[in-house]
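Lay summary. Proteins are chains of building blocks that fold into shapes, and those shapes determine what they do. In this project we predict the shape from the chain. Here is one chain we studied, written as its sequence of building blocks.
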Amino acid sequence: MINAKKYKSERRGRKDETRKIQPVKTGAITLFITLTCIAITMVSATAQVKSKTFNFVLKTMLSGDVPTITVADAAKTTREYVFLDAREEEEYGVSHLPNAKFVGYKNFDLSHVKNIPKEKPIVVYCAIGKRSEDITEKLTKAGYKNVKNLYGGIFEWVNQDHEVYDNQNRKTLNVHAYNRLWGRFLDKGNKVYQVTC
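And here is the predicted shape, written in a compact code that computers can read:
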């Protein structure tokens, strides 16, 4: 037969042990939550595009090995920079930033920029910033001193209500959205997926 007093005492002892361990678990959870909140706050404090989802995708995709410029900063100083479009001709034909020079991506060659002084400030852009990051890196390796990647590309440019122009230098709302997957990050303007002749 089990001694009831001894059994209760043993059970109580285990509960006490559990209570002693519980604050440690709670403390660890609290610490984890606190650190997570701090990390989220830091990421959103450095976010350079308005959409948190788009920013997360960019932070994941871009290497961060080249200098970037925000759309807000680039738009303030458009006259200071030469803007280079690192998309394909079809995309450029739909719309591009004001006075942007087409340099392409697949067929990019340094001869496209030979007339630009190496000290001239340059902003390279594409749809979201991935292809332009690659071109920015090539230009930097070729000796260009002040080259920046437009963070968020033409999508963020349009999302922040800046103007784009077609091949006849007319303002347009059309933007080549690359494909439906990437096009979901273009919140404003008219999405164009294919150009028909």
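What the prediction tells us: The first strand starts at residue 68 and ends at 69.
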